[in-house]
């Protein structure tokens, strides 16, 4: 039987292959995104029911069964992160997220697939690069934090807009950026797998006030996120506090 991290990688890969095949079909834009969300969700939920029938599942595209709050193991999945970008064929900044939360341990196993890059990152065997040169901060292309410019000015950094939480987090893992900064709304499935991979790779991950990220909560809303190289964490947190008047 596959280990949990192997299963996460297999599922993220399989969903990515499905999404790539669907992208080669006639659908475009919102119709393509809707079909991708639905079909990837169905694949993941069915595969998890077969491979881990006793585990609970929290998916962006599924009904939230609050029985998960009593479960010791909960898979937190985003079948298609970056739906808007996925619907635009010239974009590679979309991803599939598969993470396992375990009671008392948090996110223990995770995989993020970036199918358009033919890449899968897992919480086993991934090591973050340590970039050099000017500081680069990736932010949401559609809704960057209101204070992002103030933070970048304070740090002498460049803001880099990008879609998909998974794509932004993996840009930090690869060393293409130093910081991923988000505020203004996210859900657990947006960050669980990216955080699982990033932390296992040696990166800092927290809320933007420095507090821990907590998963499998009654309301799975996590409005903000910081992922960065450890040596930049305190400077970024300090700049955020100053920018928001904390």
From TrEMBL:
Domain of life: Bacteria
Annotated residues for binding of Mg(2+): 60, 78, 80-81, 190
Presence of keyword Magnesium: yes
One of the GO biological process terms: sulfate assimilation
Cofactor: Mg(2+)
InterPro entries assigned to the protein according to its UniProt record, in alphabetical order: CysQ/Inositol_MonoPase, Inositol_monophosphatase-like
DNA-binding listed as a keyword: no
TM stretches of this protein: none
UniProt keyword list: Magnesium, Metal-binding
Gene3D superfamilies reported for this sequence: 3.40.190.80, Fructose-1,6-Bisphosphatase, subunit A, domain 1
Molecular functions per Gene Ontology: 3'(2'),5'-bisphosphate nucleotidase activity; metal ion binding
UniProt-recorded name of the protein: 3'(2'),5'-bisphosphate nucleotidase CysQ
Native source organism of the sequence: Lentzea guizhouensis
Record lineage: Bacteria, Bacillati, Actinomycetota, Actinomycetes, Pseudonocardiales
